Amino acid sequence: MSSVETRNVARDSLFLFAQLTFEGRTAAERVKVRNLSAGGMMAETGGAEVSQGDRLTIELRNVGAVKGSVAWTQDDRFGVAFDTEIDPKIVRAPVGTKTETPAYLRKTALASPTPADATRIRKL
In three state form, how does the secondary structure of the chain look? Predict the structure, then answer.
């Protein structure tokens, strides 16, 4: 077995899309993230050229930009080692789970009359 197969790092198997930009390239690539751990991930490209050692930045939902480097490649899949660890549970969390109501959904004084104002409305 290779060292890749014998690692004992907890990984979350998942399937999500992310935007990845390689250093020195202008175009962002859309990749499928197949599994994720605090220190890295496995992704699948749609045919982009990937080489071991390539530096990159990946946009992970709920986390933002994470820098790393390609640790291994095999066919259209590759492993990324992050420069700094992340919390994979945050990436897996649904988008929009903030507890605060966005401003555009909050009630305003003009939106509807308060119960005190309702008594002043003339009934027809």
Answer: CCCCCCCCCCCEEEEEEEEEEECCCCCCEEEEEEEECCCEEEEECCCCCCCCCCEEEEEECCCEEEEEEEEEEECCEEEEEECCCCCHHHHHCCCCCCCCCCHHHCCCCCCCCCHHHHCCCCCC
Alpha-carbon distance of 107 to 102, in angstroms, equals 10
Distance of CA 76 to the CA centre of its chain: 20
Contact assessment for residue 73 and residue 50, using Cβ atoms and an 8 Å cutoff: yes
Which pair of tokens denotes residue 1?
């077995």
Q: What is the pTM of this model?
A: 0.67
Q: What is the pLDDT along the chain (124 residues), one digit of tens a residue?
A: 344 544 555 665 678 899 999 999 988 999 999 999 999 999 998 788 899 999 999 999 889 999 999 999 999 999 999 999 999 988 888 766 556 666 666 666 555 555 556 666 666 7
Q: Which two three-digit tokens encode residue 62? A: 């709920």
